[in-house]
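User: Good morning. I'm curious how calcium ion would be positioned relative to this chain. Could you predict the structure with it bound?
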Amino acid sequence: MKETLIRLSLIIILPVLCGILFWKYLPIASSNSQDLQKDREMAEYIKRVTNRTSEGLTEVQTKNGVMVDLQGRFQNVFLARLDEKERLRTACVTDLEEANRFFKRNLETGQPLAEGLNNEEESIYEIAERHKMSPEELIFYKKLIKDFQEGNLGPTNANITIINNDGPNEGFNDPTPVSPEGGNNGTTLGQQRLNVFNFAAQIWGAFLDSSVTIQVRSNFDPLTCTSTSAVLGSAGTIYVIRDFTNAQLTNTWYHAALANKQAGTDLSTTNPDIQATFNSSLNGNPSCLGGFRFYLGLDNSTPSNTVNLLVVVLHELGHGLGFSSFVNGSTGQLFNNLPDVYTTFMFDRTQNLYWNNMTNGQRQASATNNGNVLWDGPNVRIASSFLTSGRETSTGRVQLYTPTTFQSGSSISHWDTAASPNLLMEPFITTGLPLTLDLTRQQTRDVGWYRDTNNDLTPDTITNVTPSSNILAIGSTASVTWTNTGGFNRNVIVELSTDGGTTFPIVLGSNVTNTGSFSFTVPNTPTGQARIRVREDNFVQPSGVSSNFIITNNSNASVTVSGRVLRSNGRPVASAIIRMIAQDGSTRIAMTNPFGYYRFFEVPIGTYTFSVTKKGLSFQDRVVNITEDTSNLDFVASP
Ligand SMILES: [Ca+2]
Ligand SMILES: [Ca+2]
Ligand SMILES: [Ca+2]
Ligand SMILES: [Ca+2]
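Assistant: Good morning! Here's the predicted structure, ligand included:
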């Protein structure tokens, strides 16, 4: 498919979480006392707002718990400067030392930091900023590259093998000597190309689970080029398949690698799964894309006049693994009159229909319904909130690329260019894409790359989610434990519901290391219907939910419980026996008066089973969380 290179101007969006300081200074020593005075003011400010001690702060007991005013401390500070070429540089820092490094001088003394400067960390800020990554992300990828070079990248749950399909002395076998760049230590052009492919395979392989090796038949060949445009490469599944053993959907086409995963076996031993072909002409020759070449570094630092091969390969592998539809968008016809798994998640909000339920004419119209065709998969929906555009806010669905003029190869099988921040699977490769596979990971999970750490064809699960007590006091430290099955060990998000599990709006901890337990401070959300959910961070499954428990601010208090016992016709029942059974089995008994009323005094906060008996009548037992005075706990006899 044709890819177009678009150079975007750099737009800096400062995260709102950070305080913003703009200090227009060149990174040189302060040359006069006035500048030094301003530097010292800034240093004072940074020290104050990044102060991470509670010394001198006061605890105040309020009606809702113990409160500490942080007095402006514990903030992150976003700094900006113009560099030697008057380009904007920004960095989010957490202490004065980082700020000094960013400005390349000691703000308190004016001394340049050329000597003591940690160039490595300095460049992390610069590179991270330029590529719209956080320094943490950049450090993560630097480590990934190091591990790759040392051959110990992991965990790898799916093996992706690059099959070198080139002839002697060309493509992956091109013997032209090259210098190392961006962590790629291959000594020939061919080796470096192969290293990029293998690195992309490792990044995808570290995310996906499959017991079947994914085979990518790969070539570098001379492809179309003009002085202003070029085909970078193309890739796709080598075959589609349906109704195989364990297929999640019947009568539905699947990409080869995904089908093999679900089947647990290589469904075509004669065929690899994905074909990838890239343009060997993009080599700096001015007649091909104005002299651009592929950047073969692994560090996502794309020099000018280059195209980042790693990003393009990650993108193309994404298509081959499941990010593509097999519908003929210009006619609306399904592939052999049956849907493919991708189309079952395509939703047209104008027609209010999924693509697999449309007529050819409806699909044809939908293919150019710009901005109104959405990916509707649960994993994408739960993880898409980082997008500031290209997303339906109310549902989390994400727009697919359906421009008003149908573009064969680009339309349908990409995210909409409206998505921001830019996504790996947008149709145009832009600089600054992270290597995280962003929402593509959720998309692959939606189409059926379920988490299966031990590759036994049984999805991983989380069970036995249990809080440390059935009654948690607001402001206290509590914990939750859970059991991972199938070897599941990815980071989790721990969320709280206050409505019995209908919604989980409170995040207790995100990106939590999966040790099977997690401690947290009980938030100020009194409820008798608290539940904790533990799930893979950023994904719907694996997931486990606790039973209801109580969050209260008066756990030592006791309350009054009262109500009425009635016949099914609404008339009162006198002399009915109400048993209130605590979780430790202790039981208290009350009897209704002639008007059907009963009452328990001095009931400790807790969970109780209520059981009502009266000769000739039958009542359902009820389990109730008692968190406050309760006056209308009524029981009505079964008719
Ligand atoms: Ca070739
Ligand atoms: Ca095969
Ligand atoms: Ca975009
Ligand atoms: Ca499993």
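The chain has five domains: 15-130, 132-321, 326-457, 462-552, 558-636. The domain at 462-552 is CATH 2.60.40.1930 (Immunoglobulin-like).
Let me know if you'd like a different ligand tried.
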